[in-house]
Structure to design on (223 residues):
């Protein structure tokens, strides 16, 4: 499966320029807040050409794309007339030619999977009751500032028979690029079966034994 995935990415990279320059339509995604790009990522599993608005290393680039509801299938840049590809999860020899960082004004191609959250929650949803259907994906996006040592952590895990985490939580630095500016922390879950549970998060410093600076929770019913 892995071998097929990165080979498919390389083949797609070889065909990418032809498909984009021939006038294929790009549908912008519905991004969350201002992103450090000059366009929104393509939606619905499409391929798009984007331009970086501030310096970013590769991990920051991937996190910012994910925040804007693009799970990257592959990234591509051209250098010296050759494709440099990055396929998440592919062996190192596939990805080693892709640059470790992109600077302001640099273009890149991105192909997104069709997977998108069905429900998105933020600070304004604290204390809310949320109803989901089995199979729905829910994304929690909360403001956080890693430079202060604080982070959102699960106060208690939701009932695994009802709601399960998808991947690892991730942090996205501020799109302003200013040192110390707050970013966002992202938690993804998927509803698996009918039942009720809750998502409860605390904003705290791991090295302090004091009450959390803030709390956030929602009650979840899966039908």
């Amino acid at each position: 499966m892995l071998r097929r995935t990165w080979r498919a990415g390389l083949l797609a990279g070889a065909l990418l320029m032809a498909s984009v320059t021939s006038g294929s339509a790009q549908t912008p995604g519905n991004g969350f807040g201002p992103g450090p790009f000059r366009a929104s990522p393509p939606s619905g599993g499409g391929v798009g050409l984007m331009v970086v608005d501030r310096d970013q290393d590769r991990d920051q680039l991937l996190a910012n794309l994910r925040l804007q509801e693009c799970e990257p299938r592959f990234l591509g840049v051209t250098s010296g007339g050759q494709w440099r590809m990055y396929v998440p999860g592919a062996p190192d020899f596939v990805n080693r030619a892709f640059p470790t960082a992109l600077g302001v004004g640099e273009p890149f191609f991105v192909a997104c999977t069709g997977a998108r959250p069905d429900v998105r929650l933020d600070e304004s949803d604290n204390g809310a009751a949320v109803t989901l259907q089995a199979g729905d994906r829910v994304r929690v996006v909360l403001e956080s500032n890693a430079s202060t040592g604080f982070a959102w952590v699960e106060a208690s895990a939701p009932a695994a028979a009802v709601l399960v985490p998808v991947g690892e939580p991730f942090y996205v630095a501020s799109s302003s690029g200013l040192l110390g500016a707050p970013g966002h922390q992202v938690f993804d879950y998927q509803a698996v079966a009918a039942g009720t549970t809750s998502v409860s998060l605390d904003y705290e410093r791991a090295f302090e034994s004091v009450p959390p600076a803030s709390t956030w929770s929602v009650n979840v019913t899966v039908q």
Summary: Residues 2-21 form the longest helix (20 residues). Confidence is low (pLDDT under 50) at residues 8-34.
